Each structure stands twice: as C-alpha cells, then as structure tokens.
C-alpha cells in the first residue's frame, strides 16, 4: 500500500482519458476460470461484495461505487492514480467501484477532490451515501450461518422491487414453510447441529417478511413440477408446503406459475436462476446464479437480456396462475 509522499505519484490521466472518443475501457476477465471483473461478477466464498468491516447496505455500496467509477472515468483518471491518492492499491479501487467493500468518508472525500467534484451539494450527497452504505443490514446477525457470498444476495433481495425466479430443485426460499425449510436445510447440510439448522431456518423466515413489508416487491415465481414432486420431509410437510403455495399465490404482489412435466423441454433447461430489479434507476437488473460454494452475479446488459428472454418464455409457456393453482391442488390430492 502506497503512503503519501513516499513515492512519485503516477500520471493521473490514462490513455483512455486522452482518447475519450474511443469510449470506456473494455471489461476485463481475471485469470481465474469463470471469475469476471468489471460489470459481470463472480462472487466466491473467499471474496464477496458483502464481506468487509460492517457489511452494510449492499445496494448503497454498489450505487456509490458506480458513481465513483463514472466520475473517475469522466476525468480520465487511472485506478492506479486513484489508489495512490488514498494510500491504497489499484485493486482496492476496483473493489470499491464494484461495491465489494465498505467505504471510509476520508477516502471518498479525497477521491472527489481528485475527480474535481467541488460542488458542496454533490459532495454532501455522495458522502451521505457513505453513511448509508456502511449501515449493517439485519442479516448481519446471522453471519455465523450465512456465507459471505450469500449475504450479498440477501441484501439485494431485500432492496428489489421485482423478484423473478425459476426453480427446479425445490421450492424457493421465499415460499417455503418452516417445516419444509427445515427439511431442506437438514438435507443440504446434514452435519449441521440442531441449533445451526434452526438459525438457518430463522434466517429464511426473516427473508420472507419482505413480501408483506410496506414496500413489498412483486414476486413472480415459476416452479418446475419437479420441485413440487421432490419430497422434502414427510407427507405432512409436503402437504403443508403445497397448501402454503396455494394460499400465497393469492397475494396481490405474488404471481405463481407451475411449469408442468407435460410441457416437455423449455427455456429453463440450464437450471434455476433469479432476476432482481431495483427502484433505483442507476442500478441495472441483476441475474443471480447460485453454486455450491459461490454465486455468480450478472449485470452485463447483453447477458441479462438472454436471461430476460428465457424468463419471458417460461412465463408465457407455463399455465397461468389460476391453472397453476389447479395443478397445485391436484398435486396436494396425490400427496
């Protein structure tokens, strides 16, 4: 980490800044297979947007980071030069701009000065975001059972105005009953203690409160019939879960569809995925793909568009909500 006055400062103006007409720098990919840097992001268990001191508001961090990136690029300042100005590395600037770390007010003040932001109103607005970005989310108290890479998703889910999901393995966490959730947790983490399992279930139930909150998002879920037929828990657990889905599908902010086996192949053949949309106009839609020990967060427009098309086809090809409720009732009778 460089200190002020200990080395000559690198040139603040990048080649991209001198050739602004050529547009923004191209997104780059790291040397690790599948891990992307820039607009398409892979978050692993070892490096997460939600890690770092204090956790904080995921969405506010991303918003602040994206604004700092735009200011830096508009001034043609390199990441290296930006890092030097706050006694940090180029990689630290990259993590800040991606919203992966918490922010220090002094660092943001120094960067705003470097980027030529002199207007006090604009500076105060951005420094206000620093305070909001460093507020710990409610999910932080579940850090003992919540992987860092999933903390990011919980924060984004809580801030979304539209949540669209396709699920094939089991009923999505936002739609699970307590008994079903416990069965899923015990199947997925068989070595977990009863206390840890209870904590994981409590976290899942806490997440569900977003659906009945004052600013509840709209949830549009497409559940593959396989997710409804695969047993988790005993017969009573599955019956309770199916009844819950029938009830929750009547909520005004929930649209629930079932993709039946009888349809055959469909656009969700690549597996489960979630799409999140936010009320903030500065934030693009994010596609969330969960893996065993990490997660992929996609926000590159052309990639998101492919998932948008797949989701639209799933919704069009699945029976409508009323017909889907009939399917659920039929499955309940068979269970």
TrEMBL record:
Residues 1-18 have a biased composition (Low complexity). Pfam families: DUF5753, HTH_31. Residues 19-30 have a biased composition (Basic residues). Residues 68-121 form the HTH cro/C1-type domain. PROSITE patterns: HTH_CROC1. Residues 1-53 are annotated as: Disordered. Transmembrane segments: none annotated. GO terms for molecular function: DNA binding. SMART domains: HTH_XRE. CDD domains: HTH_XRE. This is XRE family transcriptional regulator. It comes from Streptomyces tsukubensis (strain DSM 42081 / NBRC 108919 / NRRL 18488 / 9993).
């Amino acid at each position: 980490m460089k200190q002020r006055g200990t080395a000559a400062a690198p040139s603040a103006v990048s080649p991209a800044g001198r050739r602004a007409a050529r547009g923004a720098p191209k997104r780059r990919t790291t040397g690790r297979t599948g891990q992307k840097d820039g607009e398409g992001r892979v978050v692993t268990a070892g490096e997460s947007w939600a890690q770092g001191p204090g956790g904080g508001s995921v969405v506010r961090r991303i918003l602040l980071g994206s604004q700092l990136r735009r200011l830096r690029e508009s001034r043609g300042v390199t990441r290296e030069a930006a890092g030097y100005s706050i006694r940090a590395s180029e990689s630290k600037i990259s993590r800040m701009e991606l919203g992966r770390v918490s922010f220090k007010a002094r660092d943001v003040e120094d960067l705003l000065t470097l980027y030529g932001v002199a207007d006090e109103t604009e500076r105060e607005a951005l420094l206000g975001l620093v305070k909001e970005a460093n507020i710990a989310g409610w999910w932080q108290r579940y850090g003992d059972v919540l992987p860092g890479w999933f903390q990011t998703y919980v924060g984004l889910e809580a801030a979304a105005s539209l949540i669209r999901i396709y699920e094939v393995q089991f009923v999505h966490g936002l739609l699970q009953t307590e008994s079903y959730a416990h069965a899923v947790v015990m199947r997925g983490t068989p070595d977990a203690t009863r206390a840890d399992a209870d904590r994981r279930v409590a976290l899942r139930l806490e997440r569900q409160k977003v659906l009945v909150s004052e600013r509840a998002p709209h949830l549009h879920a497409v559940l593959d019939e396989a997710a409804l037929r695969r047993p988790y828990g005993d017969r009573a657990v599955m019956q309770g879960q199916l009844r819950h889905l029938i009830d929750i599908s009547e909520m005004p902010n929930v649209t629930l569809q079932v993709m039946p086996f009888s349809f055959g192949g469909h656009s969700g053949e690549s597996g489960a995925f979630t799409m999140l949309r936010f009320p903030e106009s500065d934030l693009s839609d994010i596609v969330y793909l969960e893996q065993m020990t990490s997660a992929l967060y996609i926000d590159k427009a052309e990639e998101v568009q492919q998932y948008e098309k797949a989701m639209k086809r799933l919704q069009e090809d699945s029976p409508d909500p009323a017909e889907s409720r009939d399917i659920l009732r039929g499955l309940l009778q068979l269970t």
